Structure to design on (193 residues):
């Protein structure tokens, strides 16, 4: 079950057989039901997450309305800002599907770093990649029209369109569900001509 973690880390470094065995023998996994809130606004995150199976969204509640900022699926890490800053979270993390998630805590991370010291350096590289990806998504959000953002989502994360309710996709794109409906109809008409 820890193979996704090994695959993810292998993108950054070549793991030895011993390191793979250490990672494979870690048991930080938990199952969560759809609708489980992993982190609430106002709480300080004591855990970070790695999605093995399922989909998680991060969102803000603004005047009672959900504003989705990200979707996380298989082989994606989630390091809540609150986990790093030790300040109260401004947003929520919620399971959109039944999930299996590897849970990281400062204690088990320290133990893993003791066993595999190279992971400490790796953490910085992963954080740099995450920040760069977030920056590119932010830049795209600012410069692209809602229709272009939807088409970009189709190209980069098409599976989300079948896994996530359309009203949450609309929120993520920064539009109303009715606008998303119109965009989808318009694109369908274009593709059929």
């Amino acid at each position: 079950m820890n193979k996704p973690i090994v695959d993810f880390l292998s993108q950054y470094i070549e793991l030895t057989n011993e390191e793979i065995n250490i990672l494979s023998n870690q048991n930080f996994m938990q199952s969560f039901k759809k609708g489980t809130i992993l982190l609430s606004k106002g709480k300080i995150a004591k855990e970070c997450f790695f999605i093995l199976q399922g989909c998680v969204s991060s969102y803000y509640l603004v005047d009672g309305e959900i504003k989705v900022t990200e979707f996380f699926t298989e082989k994606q890490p989630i390091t809540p800002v609150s986990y790093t800053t030790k300040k109260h979270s401004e947003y929520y993390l919620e399971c959109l599907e039944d999930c299996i998630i590897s849970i990281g805590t400062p204690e088990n991370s320290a133990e893993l770093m003791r066993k595999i010291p190279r992971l400490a350096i790796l953490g910085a590289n992963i954080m740099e990649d995450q920040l760069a990806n977030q920056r590119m998504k932010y830049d795209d959000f600012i410069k692209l029209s809602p229709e272009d953002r939807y088409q970009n989502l189709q190209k980069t994360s098409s599976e989300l369109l079948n896994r996530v309710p359309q009203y949450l996709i609309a929120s993520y794109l920064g539009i109303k569900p009715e606008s998303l409906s119109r965009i989808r109809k318009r694109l369908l008409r274009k593709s059929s001509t």
In short: The CA atoms of residues 127 and 133 lie 10 Å apart. The chain has nine helices and eight strands. The longest strand covers residues 65-72. Residues 145-193 form one domain.
